[in-house]
Amino acid sequence: MLLSAAWRACDVGVNGAANGLALIFYGALLTIISAVWWGALVGYVGRWNLAVALLGGTAGAAVMVWIFVALLHVPNGYRC
């Protein structure tokens, strides 16, 4: 969602749909990775302490999104 908003703000693509297919694949990849992360954390750590599992899951999701946006960024930032 963040990457799509950045591309839309900078008018990347034709009618905002040129990068839609790439975003579908990236979104699917992020969904799979986060589902595995949350499943492992809540399934294993959640048995003993659910609050720690939820905090770890949230922190892990933030790190995943941060890495994802950092890998697909424009080298000089999003200056349109």
TrEMBL record:
| Transmembrane residue ranges | 21-44, 50-74
Q: Source organism's superkingdom? A: Bacteria
Q: Does Transmembrane show up as a keyword for this record? A: yes
Q: Which UniProt keywords apply?
A: Membrane, Plasmid, Transmembrane, Transmembrane helix
Asked whether the keyword Membrane is assigned, the reply is yes
What's the protein name? Major facilitator superfamily (MFS) profile domain-containing protein
